[in-house]
Amino acid sequence: MDALAGKRIVLGVTGGVAAYKAAELSRLLIKAGVVVDVVLTCAGSQFVGPATFQALTGRPVWHGLWDERMGNGMAHIDLTRGAAAVLVAPATADFLAKLAHGAADDLLSTLCLARDCPLLVAPAMNRQMWENPATQRNAALLKKDGIRIVGPDSGVQACGEVGEGRMLEAADLLAALSAFLQPKHLLGRRVLLTAGPTFEPIDPVRGITNSSSGKMGFALAQACADAGAEVTLVAGPVALPTPQGVKRLDVQTGAQMYEAVMAHVSGQDVFIGVAAVADYRPIKVAAHKIKKSSGPITLTMEATTDILGEVASMPDAPLCVGFAAESQDLAKYAETKRKTKKLALVVGNLVQDGLGGDTNCVILFDALGAHPLPVARKIDVARSIVVHLAGLMALIKQENGERSHA
């Protein structure tokens, strides 16, 4: 969680049963190297007391406007100065209403009004309270005011009902906060990605596919969105949740993926071909299930369209990034791919170093050489790729500017 380490976060806790998750979130934040200042409302302290948060964070807990520990009497001002963000978790329906209408009758609501840092809220309430038109109006107003709403989740609630309104789990809130605080290297950019395998049917129940999990492509889509880009993800058949803030288009075959890419590539700044598109497909798909027999069968195959090659050869092509997953001679094949298709960047890895897993080990190949990245979680690898990509874009822009003035 590099975006969090060394930063200070103000964690607001209001009066909901999900306050117990705020205690776990405090622990995770401290583990990530964050300095945490907890601000409890009176109702919040009825669920989890100040002693718990003080023990978890190692810092005094704030809960009153008239707290004399702040020498100048301005805790509502000073607590947010220098903080990376304020996160209110849980944020009750009542507290959302206060924020939406600028009410400030306690320490937490007052410091939210007087803050000079970003504010995130994690709603937590009964499903009917969340669905109530008044709450939805307040949530829409908060979004319009630039306040980030994280969640809510859907599931079984403390009241026994099932639906949307429960607060995200502590680990999900930590990930959301880290994503929010990522440097915006791609702010204002438009990125189109492909991810996952394709499925080329043989008959109505069988097909040709591969073992790509889609995890690296989805992580890269999330990393691009976290970096400020407008991201469109064309996904093959995978059972992965859509990354936050990403537009997703689901396809099955390579032909469908090609059509989706070509329909959306216009106006994109970057195209990243992460998907493991089948190189060949059956020329003829059987109308009915092929019955098993004792003898061999023959499938006549034809080459599929090279999506990355097609995009890279466009007259107004976006900056193109390819992936090369090889079982041997990685540098040779990755460099050949980069030069043949005239790509700005190729991300190469040996399949035995990360295919299907949650970590990856990659080498970045560009015109300046090879740049190995350390083994890391795929989301962290993806963020390193984004940083490198942003640097390449800045370099290309500089070179184009110098040529235009030559």
Give the domain tally: 2
Please state the overall shape, judged from the principal axes of the Cα atoms.
elongated
Termini distance? Answer: 44 Å
Provide the CATH architecture of the largest domain.
3-Layer(aba) Sandwich
User: What would the average pLDDT be, to the nearest integer?
Assistant: 87
**CATH homologous superfamily label of the largest domain:** CoaB-like
Runs in which pLDDT lies below 50 for 5 or more consecutive residues are none
Write down the Rg: 25 Å
This entry's quaternary arrangement is single chain
Under the CATH scheme, which class of the largest domain?
Alpha Beta
Individual helix count: 13
**How many individual β-strands?**
21
The main sheet orders its strands as 12-11-8-13-16-17-19-20
Polypeptide structure, described:
With 406 residues, this protein is of the alpha/beta class. It folds into two domains: 8-180, Flavin prenyltransferase-like (Rossmann fold); 190-404, Rossmann fold (3-Layer(aba) Sandwich). Helices cover 34% and strands 23% of the residues. The protein has 13 helices and 21 strands. It has helices spanning 19-31, 50-57, 75-78, 93-101, 107-114, 127-131, 133-144, 170-180, 215-226, 254-264, 307-312, 330-340, 378-404; strands at residues 8-13, 35-40, 85-91, 119-123, 148-149, 153-156, 162-166, 190-195, 200-201, 207-208, 230-235, 246-250, 270-273, 280-282, 301-303, 319-326, 345-350, 359-360, 363-366, 369-372, 376-377. It has an eight-stranded mixed β-sheet with strand order 12-11-8-13-16-17-19-20, sandwiched between helices. A five-stranded parallel β-sheet has the order 2-1-3-4-5, sandwiched between helices. A two-stranded antiparallel sheet has the order 6-7. Helix 12 links the parallel strand 16 and strand 17 (345-350). Helix 4 crosses helix 7 (133-144) and helix 9 packs across helix 13. The protein is elongated, with a radius of gyration of 25 Å.
